[in-house]
């Protein structure tokens, strides 16, 4: 459906918009996200939106001139969803970064898309409230991107992903019209769930310019357990034992030995000396300590050692091991961050299958995982000058997907399809589903100007 | 888009399908749900599907002959969503009532649409698991209808609505193709969220023939509080105080004095002698008793009396007051069950506004509410021979909607639009949203044969 943009169309758009940059360095920075994917070119320009009107005007002109627009927030995506190349114009919404309001009584916040995830929690903490979706990148990722990818994080096994915490959205459509989705009440079923349709659509259906977030009471009590295991299989068994004990940890994170060593090297910690696999578990709420005891009983048969703490400082240190896992691995080489989901009981099988992929392909794979919801991040690490989108890394990515599929799982638990995983999407969702998705895309964006080639 | 069906088309379909009934009594029963809505006619026939193939074949023929199909489960809808009239053929899926599998380790169940909500919980209880969405009609409503309306219930403030507990679906599309939506993992973001799009679409996008449900660990501990108040305003203030105390009750139900009297008359209980408004609160989990204490402290300033119990039998009696509210009111007259949602902090304003509607219109309105999520069920009660879709009852319904809208709320929290609320949908969601929804409907059902005129 997309006609190729003419240079004159791009130029006309860039001339007509406010706050445009065509600086080559800025364009190069705006061509990539944190996926490691490097497009063949750089975008023709960047529009820095400073108001909803700027977004409206940019998209109106983009429709007029048939210019492919790549929406961009903080640029921390892990699937190439905001990667941009020659012929594209980047619509950067990071300056739309106001927390518009916080309603502590109703437990809601209204924010612009450029607000960072961590900023929401910093601003709501004084009311004893928190915003539950917490990607590892919380300090640097923005709400717009969280919505685009339906971001998850460590707390979402208990508190749900972005979809469960975004009540309503204002979205600028491809033609510049403003759509309101969802509502400001906790429940509501009037009409189709366009709010859920926008969430996770990776900027292909519209550009989010405002989100009403559901906040939750911050648990008064949190209890933290760190357990070390002789091998990943034992840790996976322990994670299954926690699920089987029918408790609901707020956090249940798995880290393998190789990743622990990388974290230790970066942070000066000693995790890897205590075992070759690690589980971090937090229970929270009024029953945190009681639940912690049940959790410890469940994992004791499998663990080398168990540390428990109610001290917030020590708990934060332990959580930091997980939060720093990705940066620590990035010191070792170029990293492609896998994101497969499997049924929770298949965690051990998934870890074993990843080891077999390494054995077959020679590609190094480190593993961290949100064990409570079966979402693994297998980290393919190649040399700093090697490709993560071609060659052995791509072979390993494909094998990972087939592993997930064989175990009854999914290609992507929370990062999105972006550009990196397009090749396997149809195999997962089926041709009928993909065909319907393409038709829905055409309903929202008949000219195909919004983040073309991404997501679906 | 729909061409009028020819009688010969309907006849051809009814002749070609298995398990067809044209019995007038059965057709009359299949023309209504529990909304009180009475269509002008009755459907031409009923196809009782006994297999997925039966559904496929029926829809294939319906597309061929352009026959409007009204999908029907247990017929307990409260908005006319499964009402059927002359020219319609009802596709009854209530015989697709097998629990296909329960996986206690992964905490999932795969069920057919005709399985009753309560049957899921009966079957999963032995594993210590439960299915969280629990409409008051749990004993008689089926999973297919729960999916069609994105049903809620008493537990959903804490555990989420149907959308949060349905992982994947098999859906037969209008042309007979089988679509799989969602996935069997807790998280997953591959492609658009068609699963959420189908959930709550009131049978207008496809017919659900299988659902994979997420089960949750049944809390080991539950603590119940029943509190009585001098008036509804005091009860609403108490509900707000509970939210402000930043605890998360599993159940928080409001019942007004008139409803209490009706329940007492039916059940032989004495609730109405103890106050003119009632809150039922349950906390659950390892911290249930601690949370209960905080809850009691929060409501004490507002209550006439407070009863607390950890006894399951007594708790069930108290919960029964809520579960029997609708049948009790139905003994008083014909009931139109409102379903507005408001921000939780506006509960008292909503109750006050409903009293004003009664004063203005002379229409009796009783109020029960899921107070923890601001979902009120204002019950319009008219004489057994009066209309609930025309005259004063309709005026009251319209005023209710505008009250909800004025308070920042919604027309329907969990029952759906069906036929009863179509007149106000566009005003709530806006013309742009409705236009997009109609285009999405056309993507799934280009001939417009699926539950025409319902929902959107």
From TrEMBL, chains A, B:
<protein>
    <submittedName>
        <fullName>FAD-binding oxidoreductase</fullName>
    </submittedName>
</protein>
<dbReference type="GO" id="GO:0071949">
    <property type="term" value="F:FAD binding"/>
</dbReference>
<dbReference type="InterPro" id="IPR006094">
    <property type="entry name" value="Oxid_FAD_bind_N"/>
</dbReference>
<dbReference type="Pfam" id="PF01565">
    <property type="entry name" value="FAD_binding_4"/>
</dbReference>
<dbReference type="InterPro" id="IPR036318">
    <property type="entry name" value="FAD-bd_PCMH-like_sf"/>
</dbReference>
<dbReference type="InterPro" id="IPR016164">
    <property type="entry name" value="FAD-linked_Oxase-like_C"/>
</dbReference>
<dbReference type="InterPro" id="IPR016171">
    <property type="entry name" value="Vanillyl_alc_oxidase_C-sub2"/>
</dbReference>
<keyword id="KW-0285">Flavoprotein</keyword>
<dbReference type="InterPro" id="IPR016169">
    <property type="entry name" value="FAD-bd_PCMH_sub2"/>
</dbReference>
<dbReference type="InterPro" id="IPR051914">
    <property type="entry name" value="FAD-linked_OxidoTrans_Type4"/>
</dbReference>
<feature type="domain" description="FAD-binding PCMH-type">
    <location>
        <begin position="39"/>
        <end position="218"/>
    </location>
</feature>
<dbReference type="Pfam" id="PF02913">
    <property type="entry name" value="FAD-oxidase_C"/>
</dbReference>
<keyword id="KW-0560">Oxidoreductase</keyword>
<dbReference type="GO" id="GO:0016491">
    <property type="term" value="F:oxidoreductase activity"/>
</dbReference>
<dbReference type="InterPro" id="IPR016166">
    <property type="entry name" value="FAD-bd_PCMH"/>
</dbReference>
<keyword id="KW-0274">FAD</keyword>
<dbReference type="InterPro" id="IPR004113">
    <property type="entry name" value="FAD-bd_oxidored_4_C"/>
</dbReference>
């Amino acid at each position: 459906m997309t006609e190729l943009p003419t240079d004159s169309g791009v130029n006309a758009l860039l001339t007509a918009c406010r706050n445009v940059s065509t600086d080559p360095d800025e364009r190069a920075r705006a061509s990539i996200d944190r996926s490691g994917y490097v497009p063949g070119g750089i975008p023709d320009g960047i529009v820095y939106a400073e108001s909803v009107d700027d977004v409206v005007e940019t998209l109106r002109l983009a429709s007029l001139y048939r210019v492919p627009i790549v929406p961009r927030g903080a640029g921390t995506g892990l699937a190439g969803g905001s990667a941009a190349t020659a012929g594209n114009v980047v619509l950067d919404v990071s300056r739309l970064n106001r927390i518009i309001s916080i309603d502590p009584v109703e437990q809601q916040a209204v924010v612009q898309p450029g607000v960072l995830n961590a900023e929401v929690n910093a601003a709501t903490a004084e009311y004893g409230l928190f915003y539950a979706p917490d990607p590892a990148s919380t300090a640097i990722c923005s709400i717009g991107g969280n919505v685009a990818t339906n971001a998850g994080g460590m707390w979402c096994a208990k508190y749900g992903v972005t979809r469960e915490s975004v009540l309503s959205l204002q979205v600028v459509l491809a033609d510049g019209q403003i759509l309101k989705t969802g509502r400001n009440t906790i429940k509501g079923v009037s009409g189709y769930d366009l709010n859920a349709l926008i969430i996770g659509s990776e900027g292909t259906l519209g550009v989010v310019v405002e989100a009403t977030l559901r906040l939750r009471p911050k648990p008064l009590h949190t209890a933290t357990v760190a357990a070390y295991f002789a091998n990943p299989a034992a840790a996976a068994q322990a994670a299954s034992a926690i699920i089987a004990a029918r408790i609901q940890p707020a956090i249940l994170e798995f880290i393998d030995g190789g990743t622990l060593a990388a974290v230790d090297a970066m942070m000066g910690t000693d995790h890897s000396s205590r075992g070759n696999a690690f589980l971090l578990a937090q229970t929270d709420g009024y029953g945190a300590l009681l639940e912690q005891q049940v959790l410890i009983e469940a994992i004791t048969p499998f663990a080398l050692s168990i540390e428990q703490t109610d001290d917030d400082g020590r708990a934060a240190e332990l959580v930091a091991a997980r939060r720093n896992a990705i940066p620590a691995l990035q010191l070792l080489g170029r990293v492609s961050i896998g994101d497969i989901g499997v049924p929770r009981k298949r965690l051990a099988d998934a870890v074993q299958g990843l080891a077999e992929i390494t054995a077959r392909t020679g590609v190094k794979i480190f593993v961290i995982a949100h064990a409570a919801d079966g979402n693994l991040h297998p980290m393919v690490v190649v040399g700093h000058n090697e490709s993560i989108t071609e060659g052995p890394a791509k072979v390993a990515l494909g094998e990972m997907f087939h592993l997930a599929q064989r175990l009854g799982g999914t290609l992507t638990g929370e990062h999105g399809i972006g550009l990196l995983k397009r090749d396997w999407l149809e195999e997962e969702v089926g041709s009928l589903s993909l065909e319907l998705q393409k038709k829905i895309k055409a309903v929202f964006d008949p000219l195909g100007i919004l983040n073309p080639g991404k997501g679906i």
